Amino acid sequence: MSKAINKTMSPISPANNTGHQAFSISSVFANWRAYYDITKPKVVALLVLTALVGMSLSVPGGLPWQLLIPAMLGIALLSSAAAAINHIVDEKIDTVMGRTHNRPLPEGRISVTSAIVFATTIALLGFIMLYALVNPLTAFLTLAGLVGYSFVYTMYLKRATPQNITIGGLAGAIPPLLGWTAMTNEVAPNALLLVLIIFTWTPPHFWALAIHRKDDYAKVNIPMLPVTHGVSFTKTQILLYTVLLFVVCLLPYLVGMSNWLYLVGACTLNLIFFGYAWQLKFHAKEETAMATFKFSIIHLMLLFIILLLDHYWLPMG
What we know:
- The chain is mainly alpha-helical.
- The chain folds into 2 domains: 25-186, Tetracycline Repressor, domain 2 (Orthogonal Bundle); 188-317.
- Helix content is 79%, strand content 0%.
- The protein has helices spanning 2-9, 25-30, 32-38, 41-58, 65-89, 91-96, 104-107, 112-133, 136-160, 164-173, 175-184, 189-212, 214-219, 225-229, 231-254, 260-282, 288-313.
- Helix 10 (164-173) crosses helix 12 (189-212).
- The chain is flat.
Protein backbone atom coordinates (compact mmCIF):
# COMPACT_ATOMS: atom_id res chain seq x y z
CA MET A 1 0.00 0.00 0.00
CA SER A 2 2.79 2.45 0.89
CA LYS A 3 4.37 1.93 -2.56
CA ALA A 4 1.06 2.79 -4.18
CA ILE A 5 0.77 5.94 -2.13
CA ASN A 6 4.31 7.01 -2.94
CA LYS A 7 3.73 6.37 -6.64
CA THR A 8 0.57 8.45 -6.56
CA MET A 9 2.29 11.32 -4.84
CA SER A 10 5.54 11.35 -6.76
CA PRO A 11 4.66 14.18 -9.20
CA ILE A 12 3.74 16.50 -6.35
CA SER A 13 6.38 18.32 -4.38
CA PRO A 14 5.11 21.60 -2.98
CA ALA A 15 7.80 21.98 -0.37
CA ASN A 16 8.72 18.45 0.68
CA ASN A 17 8.93 20.23 3.96
CA THR A 18 11.37 18.27 6.01
CA GLY A 19 11.77 21.80 7.30
CA HIS A 20 14.23 24.64 7.28
CA GLN A 21 12.36 26.70 9.86
CA ALA A 22 13.68 26.09 13.36
CA PHE A 23 11.06 25.90 16.08
CA SER A 24 11.09 28.80 18.51
CA ILE A 25 8.65 30.96 20.41
CA SER A 26 9.19 33.73 17.87
CA SER A 27 8.41 31.36 14.99
CA VAL A 28 5.14 30.39 16.69
CA PHE A 29 4.11 34.05 16.88
CA ALA A 30 5.28 34.72 13.32
CA ASN A 31 3.35 31.72 11.96
CA TRP A 32 0.61 31.64 14.58
CA ARG A 33 -2.13 30.98 12.04
CA ALA A 34 -0.42 27.82 10.78
CA TYR A 35 0.07 26.46 14.30
CA TYR A 36 -3.53 27.38 15.13
CA ASP A 37 -4.80 25.55 12.03
CA ILE A 38 -3.00 22.28 12.78
CA THR A 39 -4.83 22.08 16.13
CA LYS A 40 -8.18 21.75 14.31
CA PRO A 41 -9.76 24.44 16.52
CA LYS A 42 -13.37 23.83 15.46
CA VAL A 43 -13.10 20.13 16.25
CA VAL A 44 -11.41 20.85 19.57
CA ALA A 45 -14.11 23.38 20.46
CA LEU A 46 -16.79 20.70 20.00
CA LEU A 47 -14.77 18.23 22.08
CA VAL A 48 -14.35 20.78 24.87
CA LEU A 49 -18.09 21.51 24.78
CA THR A 50 -18.88 17.83 25.34
CA ALA A 51 -16.29 17.74 28.15
CA LEU A 52 -17.98 20.75 29.77
CA VAL A 53 -21.33 18.96 29.64
CA GLY A 54 -19.73 15.93 31.26
CA MET A 55 -18.43 18.17 34.05
CA SER A 56 -21.80 19.85 34.56
CA LEU A 57 -23.82 16.64 34.67
CA SER A 58 -21.43 15.04 37.15
CA VAL A 59 -22.25 17.37 40.04
CA PRO A 60 -25.29 19.32 41.25
CA GLY A 61 -25.08 23.10 41.13
CA GLY A 62 -22.19 25.14 39.82
CA LEU A 63 -18.70 24.00 38.92
CA PRO A 64 -15.69 24.96 41.06
CA TRP A 65 -13.51 27.26 38.97
CA GLN A 66 -10.36 25.81 40.56
CA LEU A 67 -11.09 22.58 38.65
CA LEU A 68 -13.07 23.98 35.72
CA ILE A 69 -10.36 26.21 34.28
CA PRO A 70 -7.36 23.82 34.38
CA ALA A 71 -9.58 20.91 33.27
CA MET A 72 -10.86 22.78 30.24
CA LEU A 73 -7.39 24.06 29.33
CA GLY A 74 -5.70 20.70 29.84
CA ILE A 75 -8.26 18.79 27.79
CA ALA A 76 -8.09 21.45 25.06
CA LEU A 77 -4.28 21.33 24.94
CA LEU A 78 -4.06 17.55 24.69
CA SER A 79 -6.86 17.47 22.11
CA SER A 80 -5.02 20.13 20.11
CA ALA A 81 -1.82 18.10 20.33
CA ALA A 82 -3.66 15.02 19.04
CA ALA A 83 -4.96 17.04 16.09
CA ALA A 84 -1.47 18.35 15.35
CA ILE A 85 -0.02 14.82 15.38
CA ASN A 86 -2.76 13.81 12.95
CA HIS A 87 -1.56 16.58 10.60
CA ILE A 88 2.04 15.39 10.97
CA VAL A 89 1.26 11.72 10.28
CA ASP A 90 -1.01 12.53 7.33
CA GLU A 91 1.25 15.18 5.77
CA LYS A 92 2.08 13.10 2.68
CA ILE A 93 -1.48 12.02 1.88
CA ASP A 94 -2.76 15.51 2.70
CA THR A 95 -0.55 16.79 -0.13
CA VAL A 96 -2.52 14.67 -2.61
CA MET A 97 -6.07 14.99 -1.31
CA GLY A 98 -8.16 17.88 -2.55
CA ARG A 99 -9.73 18.54 0.86
CA THR A 100 -6.41 18.82 2.67
CA HIS A 101 -3.73 19.95 0.20
CA ASN A 102 -3.85 23.51 1.56
CA ARG A 103 -3.16 22.55 5.15
CA PRO A 104 -0.09 24.19 6.78
CA LEU A 105 2.29 21.22 6.41
CA PRO A 106 1.62 20.37 2.74
CA GLU A 107 1.91 24.06 1.88
CA GLY A 108 5.20 24.35 3.77
CA ARG A 109 4.01 27.13 6.06
CA ILE A 110 5.65 25.29 8.96
CA SER A 111 8.02 22.34 8.97
CA VAL A 112 7.29 18.83 10.21
CA THR A 113 10.02 19.25 12.84
CA SER A 114 8.42 22.45 14.14
CA ALA A 115 5.02 20.80 14.22
CA ILE A 116 6.40 17.85 16.21
CA VAL A 117 8.02 20.16 18.77
CA PHE A 118 4.83 22.23 19.01
CA ALA A 119 2.59 19.16 19.47
CA THR A 120 4.92 17.67 22.08
CA THR A 121 5.09 20.95 23.99
CA ILE A 122 1.35 21.52 24.25
CA ALA A 123 0.76 17.84 25.05
CA LEU A 124 3.20 18.03 27.96
CA LEU A 125 1.67 21.29 29.18
CA GLY A 126 -1.83 19.81 29.03
CA PHE A 127 -0.83 16.60 30.80
CA ILE A 128 1.06 18.40 33.59
CA MET A 129 -1.84 20.81 34.09
CA LEU A 130 -4.36 17.97 34.40
CA TYR A 131 -2.10 15.83 36.60
CA ALA A 132 -1.11 18.63 39.01
CA LEU A 133 -4.26 20.77 39.11
CA VAL A 134 -7.10 18.33 38.39
CA ASN A 135 -6.32 14.66 39.09
CA PRO A 136 -4.08 11.88 37.68
CA LEU A 137 -7.07 9.84 36.45
CA THR A 138 -8.19 12.61 34.09
CA ALA A 139 -4.60 13.24 32.97
CA PHE A 140 -4.00 9.61 32.00
CA LEU A 141 -7.43 9.16 30.38
CA THR A 142 -6.86 12.28 28.27
CA LEU A 143 -3.41 11.03 27.31
CA ALA A 144 -4.98 7.69 26.36
CA GLY A 145 -7.36 9.58 24.08
CA LEU A 146 -4.41 11.29 22.39
CA VAL A 147 -2.63 7.97 21.86
CA GLY A 148 -5.81 6.34 20.58
CA TYR A 149 -6.54 9.05 18.02
CA SER A 150 -3.04 10.07 16.94
CA PHE A 151 -1.34 6.71 16.87
CA VAL A 152 -3.83 3.81 16.99
CA TYR A 153 -6.34 5.44 14.61
CA THR A 154 -4.24 7.75 12.43
CA MET A 155 -1.13 5.58 12.10
CA TYR A 156 -2.73 2.15 11.98
CA LEU A 157 -6.53 1.78 11.78
CA LYS A 158 -7.06 4.50 9.20
CA ARG A 159 -4.79 2.68 6.77
CA ALA A 160 -5.67 -0.89 7.78
CA THR A 161 -9.44 -1.42 7.83
CA PRO A 162 -12.70 0.09 6.52
CA GLN A 163 -13.96 -0.11 10.11
CA ASN A 164 -11.26 2.41 11.05
CA ILE A 165 -13.65 5.11 12.19
CA THR A 166 -15.96 2.66 13.98
CA ILE A 167 -13.13 1.43 16.20
CA GLY A 168 -11.04 4.58 16.30
CA GLY A 169 -14.06 6.73 17.09
CA LEU A 170 -13.79 5.72 20.74
CA ALA A 171 -10.80 8.05 21.18
CA GLY A 172 -12.84 11.02 20.01
CA ALA A 173 -15.83 10.01 22.13
CA ILE A 174 -14.20 10.25 25.57
CA PRO A 175 -14.27 14.02 26.33
CA PRO A 176 -17.54 13.79 28.36
CA LEU A 177 -15.86 11.11 30.48
CA LEU A 178 -12.83 13.37 30.91
CA GLY A 179 -15.05 16.19 32.09
CA TRP A 180 -16.84 13.86 34.49
CA THR A 181 -13.64 12.47 36.02
CA ALA A 182 -12.20 15.98 36.29
CA MET A 183 -14.97 16.85 38.76
CA THR A 184 -15.47 13.50 40.53
CA ASN A 185 -12.19 11.59 40.10
CA GLU A 186 -14.17 8.46 39.20
CA VAL A 187 -15.57 6.70 36.13
CA ALA A 188 -19.36 6.59 36.40
CA PRO A 189 -21.93 4.70 34.28
CA ASN A 190 -23.68 7.93 33.25
CA ALA A 191 -20.38 9.30 31.94
CA LEU A 192 -19.92 6.19 29.82
CA LEU A 193 -23.44 6.69 28.47
CA LEU A 194 -22.39 10.11 27.14
CA VAL A 195 -19.35 8.47 25.56
CA LEU A 196 -21.66 5.91 23.93
CA ILE A 197 -23.70 8.69 22.31
CA ILE A 198 -20.64 10.19 20.59
CA PHE A 199 -19.26 6.75 19.74
CA THR A 200 -22.51 5.88 17.95
CA TRP A 201 -22.72 9.29 16.29
CA THR A 202 -19.20 9.14 14.82
CA PRO A 203 -19.64 6.58 11.98
CA PRO A 204 -22.63 8.23 10.24
CA HIS A 205 -21.00 11.62 10.72
CA PHE A 206 -17.70 10.63 9.14
CA TRP A 207 -19.04 8.25 6.48
CA ALA A 208 -21.13 11.06 5.01
CA LEU A 209 -17.90 13.01 4.48
CA ALA A 210 -16.17 9.88 3.16
CA ILE A 211 -18.87 9.49 0.51
CA HIS A 212 -18.35 13.08 -0.58
CA ARG A 213 -14.55 12.58 -0.68
CA LYS A 214 -14.52 8.98 -1.91
CA ASP A 215 -12.21 9.68 -4.87
CA ASP A 216 -9.72 11.47 -2.64
CA TYR A 217 -9.46 8.50 -0.29
CA ALA A 218 -9.21 6.05 -3.18
CA LYS A 219 -6.39 8.11 -4.69
CA VAL A 220 -4.23 7.63 -1.59
CA ASN A 221 -5.34 4.04 -0.87
CA ILE A 222 -7.06 4.81 2.41
CA PRO A 223 -9.68 2.03 2.89
CA MET A 224 -12.66 4.15 3.88
CA LEU A 225 -15.97 2.29 3.73
CA PRO A 226 -17.21 3.91 0.47
CA VAL A 227 -13.92 2.93 -1.20
CA THR A 228 -13.92 -0.70 -0.06
CA HIS A 229 -17.64 -1.53 0.04
CA GLY A 230 -19.19 1.03 -2.27
CA VAL A 231 -21.32 4.14 -1.78
CA SER A 232 -24.66 2.31 -1.67
CA PHE A 233 -23.53 0.03 1.16
CA THR A 234 -22.14 3.01 3.08
CA LYS A 235 -25.43 4.89 2.73
CA THR A 236 -27.26 1.89 4.19
CA GLN A 237 -24.86 1.83 7.13
CA ILE A 238 -25.40 5.54 7.75
CA LEU A 239 -29.16 5.04 7.77
CA LEU A 240 -28.93 2.11 10.19
CA TYR A 241 -26.56 3.98 12.47
CA THR A 242 -28.93 6.95 12.69
CA VAL A 243 -31.62 4.54 13.93
CA LEU A 244 -29.20 3.11 16.50
CA LEU A 245 -28.18 6.64 17.50
CA PHE A 246 -31.85 7.54 18.05
CA VAL A 247 -32.18 4.66 20.53
CA VAL A 248 -28.89 5.45 22.31
CA CYS A 249 -29.85 9.12 22.65
CA LEU A 250 -33.00 8.10 24.55
CA LEU A 251 -30.95 6.49 27.31
CA PRO A 252 -30.17 9.65 29.34
CA TYR A 253 -33.91 10.18 29.74
CA LEU A 254 -34.72 6.52 30.36
CA VAL A 255 -32.13 6.15 33.15
CA GLY A 256 -33.27 9.35 34.87
CA MET A 257 -30.23 11.38 33.92
CA SER A 258 -32.23 14.08 32.09
CA ASN A 259 -35.75 15.49 31.90
CA TRP A 260 -38.39 16.15 29.25
CA LEU A 261 -36.52 19.06 27.63
CA TYR A 262 -33.70 16.76 26.61
CA LEU A 263 -36.16 14.08 25.44
CA VAL A 264 -37.93 16.51 23.12
CA GLY A 265 -34.66 17.95 21.83
CA ALA A 266 -33.05 14.55 21.26
CA CYS A 267 -36.08 13.17 19.42
CA THR A 268 -36.28 16.25 17.20
CA LEU A 269 -32.58 16.27 16.32
CA ASN A 270 -32.47 12.53 15.65
CA LEU A 271 -35.56 12.63 13.44
CA ILE A 272 -33.90 15.35 11.36
CA PHE A 273 -30.65 13.34 11.19
CA PHE A 274 -32.63 10.28 10.11
CA GLY A 275 -34.31 12.43 7.44
CA TYR A 276 -30.93 13.42 6.04
CA ALA A 277 -29.79 9.79 6.07
CA TRP A 278 -33.02 8.69 4.33
CA GLN A 279 -32.55 11.31 1.63
CA LEU A 280 -28.92 10.28 1.23
CA LYS A 281 -29.92 6.65 0.76
CA PHE A 282 -32.97 7.00 -1.47
CA HIS A 283 -33.10 10.52 -2.95
CA ALA A 284 -29.51 11.75 -2.98
CA LYS A 285 -28.38 14.79 -4.87
CA GLU A 286 -24.79 15.85 -5.43
CA GLU A 287 -24.70 17.93 -2.27
CA THR A 288 -26.64 15.56 0.02
CA ALA A 289 -23.64 13.76 1.52
CA MET A 290 -21.94 17.01 2.51
CA ALA A 291 -25.20 18.43 3.84
CA THR A 292 -25.61 15.31 5.99
CA PHE A 293 -22.06 15.70 7.29
CA LYS A 294 -22.60 19.36 8.17
CA PHE A 295 -25.89 18.68 9.93
CA SER A 296 -24.32 15.89 11.98
CA ILE A 297 -22.00 18.47 13.56
CA ILE A 298 -24.95 20.72 14.40
CA HIS A 299 -26.79 17.66 15.75
CA LEU A 300 -24.07 16.78 18.28
CA MET A 301 -23.46 20.38 19.31
CA LEU A 302 -27.16 21.09 19.95
CA LEU A 303 -27.73 17.71 21.62
CA PHE A 304 -25.10 18.45 24.25
CA ILE A 305 -26.22 22.06 24.69
CA ILE A 306 -29.75 20.79 25.33
CA LEU A 307 -28.37 18.29 27.85
CA LEU A 308 -26.71 21.22 29.62
CA LEU A 309 -29.83 23.38 29.60
CA ASP A 310 -31.98 20.49 30.77
CA HIS A 311 -29.58 19.84 33.67
CA TYR A 312 -29.74 23.42 34.97
CA TRP A 313 -33.32 24.39 34.07
CA LEU A 314 -34.98 21.11 35.06
CA PRO A 315 -32.74 19.54 37.73
CA MET A 316 -33.58 15.96 38.59
CA GLY A 317 -34.90 15.36 42.13
